Structure formats: structure tokens, C-alpha cells
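Researcher: Let's do a round of design. I'm pasting the C-alpha cells now; please hold your answer until I've finished.
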């Protein structure tokens, strides 16, 4: 599979989204390397799990965690004696993978820009509720936010998080919305969004990443990061292109993909 093929997903396990968490760390690492080389000397890019807005000890809203926390409440002491058939239950702690994000911070620790490579859990059920709260807090505290949605499942994140009015202008002539998008929130222009629509027949976009108001933007080339993941992580060995993607594409995209893979002799 040529690394520079137009279709951005062959060679990446996002072809089958159940394997998304194998791709997620590699994409974040390659994005970090790209961005770090362009940053001013007093800014640094780091990969984080939790998110703290300030370098100071967290006070009230200054600290956020992107994951849902489960707390075990203390039970009241039982007044009656236990029945003879009572056996104390086994207690186990449930652990789940914590999605990572890319953060650009000042040397003092202050968060300047958060870059989120959305995972399926960010777009569904309780995970979506938690993520919405997180993104609203980021925006309210004057931090730039770049959301990269390369996940088909649960629909377009832009529509889910920003609403129909924001996405209506992105509709194609046939009425379809783009398969994916990158959404950029600039803290200095909170009423505006910079949106990069993504379609399967075009390379992934290069996006402008905002920093502080007096700094120049830096570039994040998603297609380059995807190609590096393909080449260095050998995702093609784990991807069976004779099968249809999961979740499925639209009929139009599926027909195009079938022809594209056949031209590359992958089907």
C-alpha cells in the first residue's frame, strides 16, 4: 500500500474502528513531533491523560479530568445481623484505558492549546456527556481547542457538539455531510469556528493550530502523520481490505473505496 495513496484510511486500523486504540497513540506521537519543531522556545507540546488548565494547585474549576470517575459510596451500617447464607462479595476495581490528548503549554505550565483526537467513547453515552463538559470548560477558560474527528461511529462530531446550524453549510450538493472534520476553536474569537471538512477521496488536511494571540499559528499535517503511522507501525499487516469497513461507509463512499482498493490490488 503506497503511503501517499489518496484515501487516508487504508493502512490505518481506523478501517475497522474496533482497533482505534491501536492507532490513537501513534497519531498523537506523530502530531507532537510535528508541532514541537515549530513552537516558540517558551512553549512545549506534551501528551497528557488528565488536563490541568493552570500549573498552580487545582482550585474548583481549574482542574479537569477527561474520564468519567466512579466513586464507591460508604454504606450505612446494617442494623440487623447478617442472614446465615450471607457471604461477603468479592470487590474488584474496574479500570479502563484513558484517552490521551496533546497539550501545548507555556514554560510556566499554563495551558495554551488542547488537541483532541476524538475516540469512539467521546461521542457516545456517558463518555459524550463527560467530553462535552470538558470542552465547554476549555472554551470558557480561554484555551484554544483543536478537535480531530476521524471516527465514523456515532456520526459527525461537529454535528453532535456544535449543532445543525453550524454544520448545515458543510452539506455537499447531494445533501450529505462530510465523513469527518477538524474543528478549531480560537480563544480570541470565541464565536467563530474554523472547520476543515474531510472526505475519503481527498488527503487528510493540514490544519492551522492556534497558540497565544501574539504567536504565529503552527501546522498540523494529518495526512503526513497518517502516512508515518502506516509506514512505521505496519498497520497494513493488521488490516484486511477484502472485508468491508466497520462501521460501514455510505453507499457512495463504499463504491468509490471498492474501486480504489482494486486499483491498488488490495482487493
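Researcher: That's everything. Go ahead.
Model: Designed sequence:
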Amino acid at each position: 500500500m503506497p503511503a501517499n495513496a489518496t484515501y487516508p484510511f487504508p493502512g490505518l486500523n481506523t478501517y475497522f474502528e474496533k482497533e482505534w486504540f491501536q492507532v490513537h497513540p501513534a497519531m498523537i506521537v506523530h502530531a507532537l513531533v510535528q508541532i514541537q519543531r515549530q513552537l516558540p522556545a517558551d512553549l512545549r507540546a506534551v501528551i497528557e491523560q488528565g488536563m490541568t488548565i493552570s500549573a498552580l494547585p487545582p482550585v474548583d474549576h481549574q482542574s479537569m479530568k477527561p474520564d468519567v470517575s466512579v466513586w464507591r459510596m460508604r454504606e450505612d451500617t446494617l442494623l440487623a445481623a447478617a442472614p446465615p447464607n450471607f457471604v461477603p462479595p468479592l470487590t474488584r476495581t474496574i479500570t479502563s484505558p484513558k484517552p490521551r490528548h496533546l497539550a501545548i503549554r507555556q514554560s510556566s505550565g499554563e495551558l495554551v492549546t488542547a488537541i483532541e483526537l476524538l475516540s469512539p467513547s467521546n461521542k457516545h453515552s456517558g463518555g459524550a456527556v463527560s467530553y462535552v463538559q470538558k470542552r465547554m470548560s476549555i472554551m470558557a477558560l480561554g484555551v484554544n481547542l483543536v478537535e480531530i474527528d476521524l471516527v465514523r461511529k456515532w456520526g459527525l462530531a461537529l454535528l453532535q457538539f456544535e449543532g445543525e446550524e453550524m454544520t448545515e453549510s458543510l452539506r455537499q450538493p447531494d445533501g450529505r455531510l462530510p465523513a469527518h472534520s477538524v474543528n478549531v476553536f480560537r480563544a480570541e474569537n470565541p464565536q467563530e469556528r474554523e472547520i476543515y471538512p474531510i472526505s475519503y477521496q481527498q488527503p487528510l488536511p493540514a490544519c492551522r493550530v492556534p497558540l497565544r494571540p501574539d504567536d504565529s499559528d503552527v501546522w498540523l499535517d494529518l495526512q503526513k502523520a497518517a502516512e508515518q503511522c502506516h509506514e512505521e507501525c505496519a498497520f497494513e499487516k493488521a488490516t484486511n481490505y477484502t472485508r468491508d469497513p466497520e462501521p460501514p461507509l455510505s453507499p457512495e463512499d463504499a463504491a468509490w473505496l471498492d474501486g480504489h482498493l482494486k486499483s491498488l490490488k488490495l482487493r
